[in-house]
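Thought: the user asked what SGM_5486 family transporter-associated protein looks like in 3D. I have the sequence; next I should run the structure tool and report back without guessing.
Action: structure_tool
Action Input:
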Amino acid sequence: MPVLDPNPQNGQKKMLLVFGAFIAIFVLIAIVATIAAP
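Observation:
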């Protein structure tokens, strides 16, 4: 697997997926913190 992907669209999609996962986890933690807060 090359470092520089000849298909940038695939790499961009993967980066977007990772970024989306981070946002989803952050939102999940925020909701749990809001519910857990007294």
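Thought: the tool returned a structure. Summarizing for the user.
Final Answer: Structure for SGM_5486 family transporter-associated protein predicted. The helical segments are 8-36. Residues 3 and 29 are 33 Å apart (CA to CA).
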